[in-house]
Amino acid sequence: MQARTGGQVLADVAVPFKLESTMLQPFKREWPLKLSKVLVFSILLVGGVLFGSVFNLEMSQYLQPSCSSLSSSPVEIPPEHRRLKLLDWLTGSFIHHNLTDKELLWLASMEPRRRGIPTKRVPKIAFMFLTKGPLPLAPLWEVFFKGNAKFYSIYVHSPPDYKLEVSPSSVFHGRQIPSQKTQWGDITMCDGERRLLANALLDFANERFILLSETCIPLHSFQLIYSHLIFAQHSFVGAFDDPGPYGRGRYNAQMLPVVRIDQWRKGSQWFELNRKLAVYIVADELYYNKFRDFCKPACYVDEHYLPTMLSIEFGAEIANRSITWVDWSRGGPHPAMFGKDDITAEFIKNIHGYGNCSYNGHYIPVCFLFARKFSPNTLGPLLKVSSEIIGI
Fold first, then answer.
1. Under a CB-based contact definition with an 8 Å cutoff, are residues 254 and 294 in contact?
2. What's the CA dihedral at 319, 322, 328, 332 to 10 degrees?
3. Is 160 helix (H, G, I), strand (E, B) or coil?
4. What's the rounded Cα separation, in Å, for the pair 358 and 44?
5. Using CA of residue 252, residue 253, residue 257, residue 260, what is the dihedral sign?
6. Of 33, 57, 319, 344, which has the highest C-beta tally within 10 A?
7. What's the Cα-to-Cα distance from 216 to each of 127, 249, 290, 359, 374, rounded to whole Å?
8. Are 193 and 102 in contact (CB under 8 A)?
9. Buried b / exposed e across 310-342, counting CB within 10 Å, b at 16+?
10. Which tens digits make up the pLDDT trace of 76-133?
């Protein structure tokens, strides 16, 4: 039997049924369909290879540090990109920096939540000097600090255009922090205090923080002062309710609801704090903003900001007294400034014998650890009585 299709003869083929032309059509289209599938697959394959190559190239810059360990030679890291060692961080050795106040306060406000510090350390006292420039009584402080380098840190905040000139062997050498201009009674004075606290907090060994000026002197030996502060259960911040015109009379009702008039406090600028309260102060924005905006002369921020805030938030943790002695008996807006003729052994003894003060739940005969204000010409007389009276 022969069958004819498309003009061709299919010879010697048994066809049990009638062959339709439509039944042969798929055989004609089979190869074009396979070819299209191959082309699509090839495009996808090439595209995948190209994408993978680009992806690897881009990711290599991120993977390089972790992959560098596979190399036979170490990768040289530029000095400016090298990581701080743990000890650098814990000891606050990077005192010279270019951080803004906002960056500095943020960094200093961080606290480890894990117990213990992974290195050996000795608790230290941070002596923070808020100055107008020179330190005329520095030689007296040099004698005071001698032999106790492991137990203290020093920070000096002076006008930004002033450079403290001391010998390389001085305890004050290289201890100036980045500063800005401050003005008495203005919020900038509190900015200076917070700047000092923030820099001191970067050293995790600092446990106590004392604010001093260039007119301050120590009243006792370093050993006595160190023990007194390290073992103190309270922070020494003066805070009292003054109902008169120089107390509640400075209150601004726009501080509500953050500060009520019955919470308004007054106290000495010269504080001493433990680490917990120091961290709270540098982290504070709520009270700071209120005092910045609504406590302006004749409201003096440095006399009200910390006493009010700490009384509200940590009333049971402050001693409500200062450990820096001053003489207000002469009257006026500032305490008395002492000259060389005032400095005698009897004068220092009178400050020592001021009375008994509460300390860790008991009364002791030590009330003040520091005193101010002493003019530059008192240095000679102070050095003469220091060994006999101050014990240094």
1. yes
2. -100
3. coil
4. 83
5. positive
6. 319
7. 11, 30, 30, 22, 7
8. no
9. bbbebeeebbbbbbbbbeeeeeeeebeebeeee
10. 445 544 455 666 666 666 667 888 999 999 999 998 888 777 777 899 999 999 999 9
Judged on CB neighbours under 10 Å (0-12, 13-18, 19+), 191 is: buried
Could you tell me the end-to-end alpha-carbon distance of the chain, in angstroms, rounded to an integer?
A: 133
Q: What's the rounded Cα separation, in Å, for the pair 116 and 90? A: 12
Average pLDDT, the chain: 83
The encoded tokens of residue 121 equal 């350390």
Residue type, 288: Y
Pull the structure tokens for residue 10: 């299919």
Helix (H, G, I), strand (E, B) or coil at 34: helix
Provide the 10 A C-beta neighbour count for residue 369.
Answer: 19
Distance CA 186, CA 195 (A): 15
- Among 85-94, 132-141, 317-326, which stretch is predicted with the lowest mean pLDDT? 85-94
Type of residue found at 97: H
Closest-CA residue to 196 (of 300, 142, 272):
272
Q: Are 133 and 158 in contact (CB under 8 A)?
A: yes
Show Cβ contacts of residue 308 under 8 Å, excluding neighbours closer than 6 positions: 239, 259, 263, 264, 265, 287, 291
Q: Are 99 and 184 in contact (CB under 8 A)?
A: no
Q: What's the rounded mean pLDDT across residues 306-325?
A: 97
Six-digit token string for 156: 């000096």
Characterize the bridge pairing of strands 357-359 and 362-364: antiparallel
Residue 191 CA to residue 181 CA, distance in Å, equals 9
- CA distances (Å), 103 to each of 188, 226, 255, in order? 17, 31, 27
Per-residue pLDDT of 257-287, as tens digits, reads 999 999 999 999 999 999 999 999 999 999 9
Give the CB-side neighbour count of residue 209, counting CA atoms within 13 A. Answer: 29
Greatest Cα-to-Cα distance within the chain, rounded to the nearest angstrom: 145
Specify the amino acid at residue 191: D
pTM, two decimals, is 0.78
Nearest C-alpha neighbor of 213 from the set 359, 58, 375: 375
Q: State the pLDDT confidence band at 323, using cuts at 50, 70 and 90.
A: very high
Residue with tokens 């009178």: 350
What's the Rg (C-alpha) of the chain? 38
DSSP annotation of 355: -
Q: Quick one: pLDDT at residue 195? A: 97
